[in-house]
């Protein structure tokens, strides 16, 4: 009897997290000798959440693990690719393609979609928040809002999307970084004194951990910020405001007060970090008020999933498609100059960009050949840098 309500690696890999109708489909096709028909399937999305102009493709590494050893070929955009739902002509953009006997992969449609839908939604939201936050510190705080088994995926996708660091132990291990975080309100409450808690932290925790004092437990944020600098002096690296909605009023004005009082006393280098209910809409005003960094939780970890669908577009070499989809295998091209995407029938030369005349290049790469991984995924650091380069040329 399992103790936690999660699927094991083996259950996912064996197709036990699929929908029952795919199991029945596999049985029917096998009985009627149709399970070996070669089918090419594409993963696309019709629209992105909340009228986003772009999303970030994430989750490929787990997809490769899912399909490794199966007799299929798999092609995909590199993980971290920023993509629109549709190309410049309104054609859905395939982010991933499977080529093989349909009976060999039909039961994996459900887990494959799950691996990219949620991770891509989290990475996309993190990227949007990164875009809004500019070069400010951005830390993923969201794992407490989701099932703990998902913490590595959530923090990996958050980091890939643009967060500087993550708070969870398992998530930090996944991206080979140290977890970032200092103190909760409970530490101060147990000590029954902000000053005693700050002192205990400073005396106990290694010096390589920044001294960032939480300053909104009992008193006014301005008052507690001054208590913090008087207590820790020059060893204080920053203060964090996690002020609840019921006490906020104008949060940006609270930050301005704290910044003013710190500067007035010569503590211009003490950073102001804010957390609690932060999203891409609230960030610009907070930056203007003097915030140096953000701990972002729920808005990243509970990000809208990207509703990818998997559809067969070619059967035994002949184009086919359900209503509303475009038949035939396709190739995705991206302009090196303006980043426009163009979807064309497979093996057709892309030519030049119809928008700016720039050079275009194929975007889908083969990662699996007959069940063998032939292109290793990049590291989280490499993927993150790839995302950040693309974000430089994008608007929200």
Automatic annotation (TrEMBL):
Protein name in the entry: nicotinate phosphoribosyltransferase
KW Transferase (keyword) present: yes
Keywords tagged on the record: Glycosyltransferase, Ligase, Phosphoprotein, Pyridine nucleotide biosynthesis, Transferase
GO terms of biological process kind: NAD+ biosynthetic process
Catalysed transformations (reactions): 5-phospho-alpha-D-ribose 1-diphosphate + nicotinate + ATP + H2O = nicotinate beta-D-ribonucleotide + ADP + phosphate + diphosphate
Boundaries of every Quinolinate phosphoribosyl transferase C-terminal domain copy: 122-311
Ranges for domain Quinolinate phosphoribosyl transferase N-terminal: 19-120
EC number: 6.3.4.21
InterPro entries linked to this entry: Aldolase_TIM, NAPRTase-like, NAPRTase_arc-type, Nic_PRibTrfase-Fam, Nicotinate_pribotase-like_C, Quinolinate_PRibosylTase_N_sf, Quinolinate_PRibosylTrfase_C, Quinolinate_PRibosylTrfase_N
Pathway it works in: Cofactor biosynthesis; NAD(+) biosynthesis; nicotinate D-ribonucleotide from nicotinate: step 1/1
Top-level taxonomic group: Archaea
Listed SUPFAM superfamilies: Nicotinate/Quinolinate PRTase C-terminal domain-like (SSF51690), Nicotinate/Quinolinate PRTase N-terminal domain-like (SSF54675)
Enzyme class: ligase
């Amino acid at each position: 009897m399992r103790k936690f309500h999660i699927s094991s690696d083996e259950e996912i890999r064996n197709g036990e997290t699929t929908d029952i109708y795919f199991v029945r489909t596999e049985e029917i096709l096998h009985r009627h000798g149709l399970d070996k028909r070669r089918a090419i399937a594409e993963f696309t999305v019709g629209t992105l959440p909340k009228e986003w102009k772009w999303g970030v493709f994430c989750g490929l590494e787990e997809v490769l693990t899912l399909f490794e050893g199966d007799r299929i070929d798999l092609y995909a955009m590199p993980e971290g690719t920023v993509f629109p739902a549709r190309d410049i002509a309104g054609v859905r953009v395939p982010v991933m393609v499977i080529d093989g006997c349909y009976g060999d992969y039909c039961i994996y449609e459900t887990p494959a979609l799950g691996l990219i839908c949620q991770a891509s939604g989290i990475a996309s939201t993190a990227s949007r928040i990164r875009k809004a936050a500019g070069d400010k510190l951005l830390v993923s705080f969201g794992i407490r809002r989701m099932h703990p088994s998902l913490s590595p995926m959530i923090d990996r996708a958050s980091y890939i999307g643009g967060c500087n660091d993550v708070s969870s132990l398992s998530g930090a291990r996944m991206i080979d970084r140290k977890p970032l975080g200092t103190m909760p309100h409970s530490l101060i409450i147990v000590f029954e004194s902000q000053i005693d808690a700050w002192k205990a932290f400073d005396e106990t925790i290694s010096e390589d951990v920044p001294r960032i004092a939480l300053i909104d437990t009992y008193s006014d944020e301005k008052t507690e910020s001054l208590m913090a600098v008087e207590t820790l002096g020059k060893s204080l690296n920053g203060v964090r405001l996690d002020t609840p909605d019921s006490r906020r009023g104008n949060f940006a004005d609270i930050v301005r007060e704290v910044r003013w009082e710190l500067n007035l006393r010569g503590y211009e280098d003490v950073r102001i970090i804010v957390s609690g209910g932060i999203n891409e809409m609230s960030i610009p005003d907070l930056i203007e008020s003097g915030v140096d960094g953000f701990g972002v939780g729920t808005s990243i970890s509970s990000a809208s999933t990207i509703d990818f669908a998997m559809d067969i577009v070619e059967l035994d070499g002949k184009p086919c498609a359900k209503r509303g989809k475009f038949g035939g295998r396709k190739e995705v091209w991206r302009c090196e100059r303006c980043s426009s995407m163009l979807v064309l029938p497979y093996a057709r030369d892309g030519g030049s960009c119809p928008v700016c005349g720039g050079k275009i290049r194929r975007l889908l790469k083969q990662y699996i050949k007959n069940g063998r991984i032939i292109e290793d995924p990049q590291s989280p650091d490499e993927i993150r840098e790839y995302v950040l380069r693309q974000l430089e040329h994008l608007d929200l």
